[in-house]
Amino acid sequence: MKDNVSKKVKDMQPSGIRAFFDLVLGMKEVISLGVGEPDFVTPWQIREAGIYSLEEGFTSYTSNKGLYKLRLSLSRYLKSRFGLDYSPDDEILVTVGVSEAVDLALRAIINPGDKILIPAPSYVSYGPVSELAGGLPVFIDTSRNAFKLKPEALEKAIDKKTKAVVLNYPSNPTGVSYTRSELDALKKIILKHGLLCITDEVYGDLTYDLQHTPFATLPGAKARTVYLDGFSKSYAMTGWRVGFACGPKDIIAAMTKIHQYTIMCVSITSQMAAVEALHSGSRNVEEMKREYRRRRELVVEALNRIGLKCAKPQGAFYAFASIKKTGLNSLDFSRRLLQKQKVAVVPGDAFGKSGEGYIRISYASSLENLKEALNRIELFLKGLPNRQAGR
Amino acid sequence: MDEILEILEKDCRLSNEDIARMLKKKPQDIKKAIQKYEKEGAILKYKAVINKELIKDGERDVRALIEVNIVPQKDVGFDRIAERIYSFPEVSSCYLISGTYDLLLIVEGKDIHAVSRFVAEKLAPSENVRGTVTHFLLRKYKEDGVILKHRKENERIAISY
């Protein structure tokens, strides 16, 4: 009998992680620190703008590239915030979240066999999407360098088939970010080898201890950068699905070509809401950021105190804690923690082999939940046999 | 505003230790700062926000917003008259405002008669009160930033990337 599903798709079967996810979803009264989205509701004035646009009858398609008003607002915002010049006419594309933008960017640049360098552990989509586009993802293990991509490691991974680097900072799952000079060192290598840099900066606004530097603002980098960002995390707008891509005209045109056949355009309601977010949402972003930062201090301190070593994440809302001392692997640890104490976390190896030995803890959760969950994790660690006691 | 105050305004039951952890400070420094605010009167009180509509056996107070026109006194302006008025325990809030009247009061009583009696017997006859308009409050939707409705929360997917 003929196989219904293509070989390519069959080959991208996720690991055992799916079963664990199903276990979490099937269990009741779990405190979940496994959530990859804000616990805030979208600020009211943004929701109201969406509602108002519906009342006014804005229910049509928009331009493939996105509402001109939104692109213009984005262009102005990027100029005033970072001094970045992107023309609303042909250098900005509005996408269905950054997820779509990642897919478009990779499909737009990959020729069969091209290699895409991905610092790992990494967000889950970069590898599979590269493969679907006919490319070859090459993961650079950063676990020995505090999860930071070092220029030497980058250069070592480059060969003739290398086309681009995907740089996600602040990073999901590690929360690691880069200073301007660290980025500049990476940029030199990227330019030297004529590579492209696809940057996923969706957590950029949630950077705590340093100034977020968009890669494209580095001297000489803009022409080689596809800058991806979105509204999901900073404005608590995950469900609206709005992201955007900025880049050189030829790449944006190529991405738009794919986008117009596959997506057509982003929902107009969401785009109208996004305009309002840019217009009036910065106060909300700052407020949420302060809240995340406070939780971060609490969580990181508690994790280290109970014996799960964890560096302080510089951005996003994740702590990536080591469970190596327990002697368990990430999946076993997470499964047992779920069964014994009803706390859900994401096993680190969900983000690649180099994430083994870690768990991702999201602090996009209420203080009460975080405190209760951390207590339960402590109890769980105490209940492990001595060898695995974690201290 | 000091972040300690921002935290307390959201949840005043957090311990000094928790606040200290969140702000990377020492618990005794938090304690000191809070004591200072209390002493200065910047922090006046800690209380629970109660939605009385949901309290089954509780007495449900009647509330009224009362506009008061007053004749200002020489030298002391509105303040002394306001003081005479807000000192009544029935007055839960008192504001001096711009516009067509001078004071806005929120008055509470156990029923409509109690509030009416207060207006008729205490407030209106006051020497410097020129007139009052009483608005009985029918329903509370939101108070001091808190929406008085138990909303069904949109549950996030328990686990996601």
Summary of the model, kept short:
Chain A has 391 residues and is of the alpha/beta class.
Textual characterization of the structure:
The complex is a heterodimer of chains A (about 400) and B (about 160). Chain A is of the alpha/beta class and about 400 residues long. Chain A has 13 helices and twelve strands. In chain A, the strands form three sheets. A seven-stranded mixed beta sheet of chain A has the order 2-8-7-6-5-3-4, with helices on both faces. In chain A, β5 (about 160-170), α8 (about 180-190) and β6 (about 195-200) form a beta-alpha-beta unit. The longest helix of chain A is centred in the last third of the chain and has 24 residues, at about 280-305. The mean pLDDT of chain A is about 95. Chain B is of the alpha+beta class and about 160 residues long. In chain B, the strands form two sheets. Chain B has a four-stranded antiparallel beta sheet. The radius of gyration of chain B is 21 Å and the shape is extended. The interface of A and B includes residues 295 and 346 of A.
Characteristics:
heterodimer; A: 391 residues; alpha/beta; Aspartate Aminotransferase, domain 1; Aspartate Aminotransferase, domain 2; 2 domains; seven-stranded mixed β-sheet; three-stranded antiparallel β-sheet; 14% strand; globular; B: 161 residues; alpha+beta; Alpha-Beta Plaits; four-stranded antiparallel β-sheet; two-stranded antiparallel sheet; 5 helices; 6 strands; 21% strand; extended
